[in-house]
Amino acid sequence: MAVFTPVTETDARALLADYTLGELRALRGIPSGIENTNYFLTTSQGEYVLTLFERLTREQLPFYIDLMTHLAEHGIPVPHPQATRDGRRLAELNGKPCTIATLLPGKCEMSPLPAHCEQVGATLARMHLAGRDFPAMQPNLLGLDWWRETEPVVAPYLDPAAAAMLRDEVAVQTAFAQTDVCRALPRGPAHCDLFRDNVLFAGTREAPVLGGFIDFYFAGCDTWLFDLAVCVNDWCIAHASGAFQPELAQAMLGAYDRVRPLTDGERDAWRTVLRSAALRFWMSRLRDFHLPRPAQTLTPHDPTHFERILRLRRDGDIFPLP
Ligand SMILES: Nc1ncnc2c1ncn2[C@@H]1O[C@H](COP(=O)(O)OP(=O)(O)O)[C@@H](O)[C@H]1O
Ligand SMILES: N[C@@H](CCOP(=O)(O)O)C(=O)O
User: For this UniProt entry, which residues form the secretion signal (predicted)?
Assistant: First the structure.
């Protein structure tokens, strides 16, 4: 249950008094999610999501809130953080920073078809282009520096072969970061966690309409290719084996490339970046599994899923860029 900080109707009414979003009609805790407290908030004017931030600091939060605002105002379907009467998009409730953002239509699709992948690819490329003139810079906080720092922390929980693979992969990624190929990769604000559960679809399964991208709280400035690799490693695989499903990968990558043509440098880097995207989630899952935060109440995701994907990518299971 992702309600770590309970909110009563009285709390919500007091919060809404700072906004021009109308009167409270309904408040309902959202059970899914692992990071933040989320409530569906219905007012006389519309439907919103109230998020209370449990992990991110007040210094980090403006980047995410301003990025979502920027993207929403550039026509990208993302939650639009609403402003208080005095113009703040971050407020405070029950001792936690919070925001009220627009509710996006639809629900997530955990068994995607090529039509879903195509829309995710095209919208991701539009999002990258729309982020080009976003002025703030905050790195992907779970990027290379974090991998280097976390490798010795999680390695003791692994068997020797897995620990060796982890150490080698961090070394490979460290060396890659120093190359001209890596330095030249186009970059900017990236979602960095655009898994199946962070995209909503309305319409029908056969004729889906993308409702939007949610959960920007792992976003950061990184290569656009990394963002695409995170998506492909989740959306375009057979979940049991981690192997690519060619028709899904083709749909996503083709649609992305039609909106933002991929460069030759990105083609050269693809194999290594696909590996880095698997490494990132193997490591965060290892940390969450073996070193859960004190308040963590949810069953952590299975780390071996991304260990398997990383091994496959290292062994050459790569779907080429168009
Ligand atoms: N703006 C939104 N529009 C519609 N549903 C949302 C929105 N934000 C969150 N949700 C719902 O809340 C759930 C949990 O949100 P999420 O941001 O993924 O939480 P967490 O950051 O805790 O993982 C989502 O799966 C979705 O059902
Ligand atoms: N996508 C990550 C976990 C992050 O959880 P979210 O609910 O905030 O998207 C993973 O699968 O490890």
Answer: none
pLDDT in tens, 233-282: 999 999 899 999 999 999 999 999 999 999 999 999 999 999 999 999 99
Ligand 1 centroid to 77 CA: how many Å? Answer: 14
Closest residue by Cα to atom 14, ligand 1, is: 33
Q: Under CATH, what is the fold of the domain 9-102? A: Phosphorylase Kinase; domain 1 (3.30.200)
Tell me the per-residue pLDDT of 21-77, one tens digit each, with 9 for 90 and over.
999 999 999 987 778 899 999 999 999 999 999 888 999 999 999 999 999 999 999
Alpha helices in the chain (DSSP H): 9-16, 61-73, 114-130, 144-154, 160-177, 180-183, 224-235, 246-259, 264-290, 303-314
Give the Å distance between the CA of 193 and the centre of ligand 2. Answer: 7
Give the whole-angstrom CA distance, residue 194 versus residue 212.
11
- CATH architecture label of 114-314: Alpha-Beta Complex (3.90)
- Say if the ipTM goes beyond 0.90: yes
